[in-house]
Design goal:
Helix content of chain B: over 70%
Largest sheet of chain A: none
Order of helices and strands of chain A: HHHHH
Strand content of chain A: under 5%
Radius of gyration of chain B: 22 Å
Structural class of chain A: mainly alpha
Distance between the termini of chain A: 57 Å
Strand order of the largest sheet of chain B: 1-2
Radius of gyration of chain A: 23 Å
Distance between the termini of chain B: 46 Å
Number of domains of chain B: 1
Order of helices and strands of chain B: HHHHHHHHEEHHHHHHHHHHHHHH
Oligomer: heterodimer
Number of helices of chain A: 5
Largest interface: A-B, 69 and 62 residues
Strand content of chain B: under 5%
Number of domains of chain A: 2
Number of strands of chain A: 0
Number of strands of chain B: 2
């Protein structure tokens, strides 16, 4: 079976490990290595970076020799929407307060699914917001203003 | 007699009204998420971890532990009724449990699963009480070389026994260690891998990583796999109690399953699915009529269900006595301790006896609650299965985000979580298991510290790890485990177990 490289699970893992290991070693060069007796802050990260790099090469080679495709979808929609919803929540918490932030988070998140029923999402947003406000603000006493930034 | 006094102390703590309540919340939530496929104890505990900051340490741990073992109970309910494992550990239960349900014996199947789990839970609570103190005492004598070797053993075993590709698991462990290094180096005061963000000089938040990968990354992955969830059409379940013959058939499988699970439990990295698979195979081999397996043999439910619960409970032994987490979920438990300002390790037992013994006693109480409560609540769990995922995941998002924000009131950590959500999803798709990564992340700073100290003591001589007997023992054990797992004949077997 022919598997394209961009869809080759182990090849891609190998690339990922190579990048991470490489970046780690590159950055750790600014930290003093020290000696085995008195290890500097660079020692441990460089060793780890090296280990990751080696496994990366291994995965890359095995990936080319024994190609195996990625299983499942890349679900691009959810992959963009959910982190975006998370980031918006962070900004909104600082600027407009707990309740608007939460409502936005729930509504934006709901777009990640493949079905979006307006009334259902509205109900969910109201219900969850009331529940979370009761639990977190009144129950656990988290000190966040409900409708203003801080 | 000391054990007796300790247990009394434990039950006094566990039976206080407040702790009973947290125990109940824990096992209730645990069963709930155990029943629901698509959300596991790992994500739930990660999500609720920050909230526990506002709760007394003992109550917090009692609740989180309840979620953990409660999920094992819940997972089997779904497996038996819907032929879908609510948790990965319940995969085996679908083989015979669902068959029993189809033959109209859902009641006894659920009943025996609960009884088996309870027996296993009781036995393992005793094990923890018996072996906890001596182990902790031994661990108190460990020096830096011993600790380093022990952690190495834990990480390597966890990686090689993990599901799937061993090289990837080892690389993910190293990556976890590396992520653990991010932040200010204690010895030199130098900020490492902070990318210029002052927020990162304190290191990556434990909860940020866990929630990003195990809650958000997981949701993205679930939304990608458009797996149709079967909706339970259902027969009425009456008579939950197994009959005499059932009990007779199940007695030995429950005992064997419990022992097997307890054994696998203390091994790092072996998830409850390995314990339950092994138990299933063992029962099939021991049985006089192996042809019944897969067609509704009660032994095929009793053994594995006891095994996975035993495994879940004994995972607490290395975690609580040595401060070395035996699984990713246990790493979260240690995270909960750390959030409360308690350094995990053997000293917890002597310095916080009420916490240790209270937790141990609460596990028994929790197991009892599960048996008593789950039976009448089966109807509720079944109706929960009808809740579609599209209503569930926004709720998970809401709890996750509020939880993270509440740790440091920091929007930066929210952004970091979003990044780990993306990265975590990529890992899941490439089948790079994030569980060993989390273990590495937790142990990273400790391991570096002990490595440095060990080499300082030995004046830079690395043979120190092989000349001190206990340390040598850990190193040899590590080597044996790796060799066994790499040998081709056994590799096939391992594939059969983990897939």
């Amino acid at each position: 079976m022919k598997v394209e490289l961009k869809n080759n699970k182990r090849f891609l893992s190998g690339i990922m490990f190579l990048i991470v290991g490489g970046v780690a070693i590159y950055m750790a060069q600014d930290y003093p290595m020290g000696t085995a007796l008195r290890m500097g802050p660079g020692y441990f990260p460089i060793v780890l970076g090296g280990i990751i790099l080696l496994f990366g090469i291994w995965e890359l080679i095995i990936g080319v020799l024994k190609p195996d495709p990625v299983k499942g979808n890349w679900s691009i929609r959810a992959l963009i929407v959910l982190p975006l919803a998370t980031v918006i929540f962070g900004i909104a918490m600082e600027k407009v307060g707990f309740i608007p932030a939460l409502v936005t988070l729930i509504i934006v998140s709901a777009f990640a699914g493949d079905e979006f029923k307006v009334w259902e999402v509205a109900g969910l947003a109201v219900g969850l917001t009331i529940m979370c406000t009761l639990i977190f603000i009144y129950g656990l006493g988290l000190p966040y203003p409900l409708f203003s930034g801080h | 007699m000391e054990l007796f006094n300790n247990l009394i102390l434990g039950f006094t703590v566990a039976l206080s009204l407040q702790n009973l309540m947290y125990c109940f919340i824990g096992v209730f939530l645990g069963t709930l998420i155990g029943v629901l496929p698509g959300i596991g104890p790992l994500a739930t505990i990660a999500m609720l971890l920050p909230i526990t900051f506002n709760v007394a340490p003992t109550s917090a741990l009692i609740m989180l532990a309840g979620i953990y073992y409660g999920a094992q109970y819940g997972g089997s309910t779904t497996a038996i009724l819907v032929n879908l494992p609510g948790e990965t550990s319940a995969v085996v239960t679908t083989f015979d449990g669902y068959q029993m349900a189809r033959q109209g014996r859902a009641g006894p199947a659920l009943g025996i699963a609960a009884i088996g789990s309870f027996v296993a839970g009781t036995f393992c609570t005793m094990l923890i009480a018996l072996f906890g103190p001596p182990l902790a005492e031994m661990a108190l004598k460990f020096g830096a070389p011993e600790y380093f070797s022990l952690m190495l053993m834990g990480l390597v075993t966890a990686a090689v026994l993990a599901h799937g590709d061993m090289a990837k698991a080892l690389a993910m462990t190293a990556l976890g260690l590396l992520l653990g290094v991010v932040g200010t180096d204690v010895n030199s005061g130098m900020a490492r891998f902070s990318f210029g963000f002052p927020e990162l000089t304190d290191g990556i938040g434990f909860v940020v990583l866990a929630v990003g990968v195990f809650a958000i990354g997981e949701i993205v992955s679930n939304l990608g796999d458009k797996e149709e969830r079967q909706i339970f059409t259902g027969q009425k379940i009456k008579n939950l109690w197994p009959n005499k013959q059932d009990l007779k058939d199940s007695a030995m499988p429950i005992m064997r399953g419990t022992l097997l699970g307890a054994f696998f439990g203390v091994l790092p990295g072996t998830g409850p699915s390995i314990a339950s698979f092994s138990s299933y195979m063992l029962e099939k081999k021991m049985s006089k009529h192996p042809e019944k397996f897969g067609k509704g043999a009660i032994e095929g439910v009793a053994g594995p269900e006891s095994a996975n619960n035993a495994d879940a409970q004994t995972k607490f032994i290395p975690t609580l006595t040595l401060g070395i987490p035996a699984s990713a979920t246990m790493a979260l438990m240690l995270g909960a301790l750390t959030i409360q300002g308690i350094a995990p390790g053997p000293q917890v037992m002597t310095q916080k006896p009420d916490l240790f013994w209270g937790l141990v006693a609460s596990m028994w109480v929790g197991n009892l609650m599960l048996v008593l409560l789950n039976m009448p609540l089966i109807g509720l769990w079944v109706s929960l299965l009808k809740v579609p995922y599209r209503l569930l995941f926004p709720a998970i998002m809401a709890f996750s985000c509020i939880g993270i924000y509440s740790v440091n009131n920091s929007a930066f950590e929210i952004y970091l979580t979003a990044i780990f959500g993306v990265v975590g999803f990529i890992w899941l798709r490439l089948e790079c298991q994030p569980a060993p990564l989390l273990l590495g992340f937790v142990l990273g700073p400790l391991m570096e510290e002990n490595l440095r100290r060990a080499l300082l003591i030995s004046r830079g001589d690395p043979t120190v790890f092989f000349t001190r007997p206990i340390s040598l023992g850990f190193m040899i054990a590590t080597a044996i485990i790796v060799i066994i797992m790499v040998l081709p004949a056994l590799k096939k077997r391992r594939a059969a177990i983990t897939d």
